[in-house]
């Protein structure tokens, strides 16, 4: 910018609400700005628990249900960035919470690509009731219900394990 020193520009960027710019962590030139997408972040957190992952996943089928859509495990995996093979154990706390609270079984709309049926771990409804339960899930106001926390999901799976 015309009339601004490099230090002024740096100070303006540092107090800016624009997340695209951050101060570089390089010691040799502290005045260099770099895009946040180019910065490296060290992660020191522990891996998420199953119930924390379930809380993260909850919004995906809830949003799909509000739009009267079904999902495959592949869709869910791509949307949240995880391997498809891990989904069964991460969906169990959601299923347990729904069963324990008398809610429609939200996971009934996560259907296998080849069969169009829920996975083998789904125990939220009898096979003869799947269509009725899917309609109940699609009609329920999941956004109004909100997302249960990891603690509530963990308690639900302890109180009512539900993965076949």
Describe this structure in words.
The chain starts with 5 loop residues before the first helix and ends in a 5-residue tail after the last helix. α2 (50-66) crosses α4, α2 crosses α7 and α4 crosses α7. 26% of the residues are buried. The chain is globular and about 40 Å long. It contains seven helices and two strands; from the N terminus they run αββαααααα. It has two domains: 6-38, no CATH class; 50-159, no CATH class. The chain is mostly helical.
Q: Major beta sheet, specifics? A: 2 strands, antiparallel
Report the portion of residues in β strands: under 5%
Structural class, by secondary structure, is mainly alpha
Mean pLDDT: 80
Q: Which outline best applies?
A: globular
Q: Low-confidence segments, ≥5 residues, pLDDT <50? A: 8-42
CA-atom Rg in angstroms: 22 Å
Count of spatially separate domains: 2
- For the secondary structure, the number of strands is 2
Strands side by side in the biggest sheet? 1-2
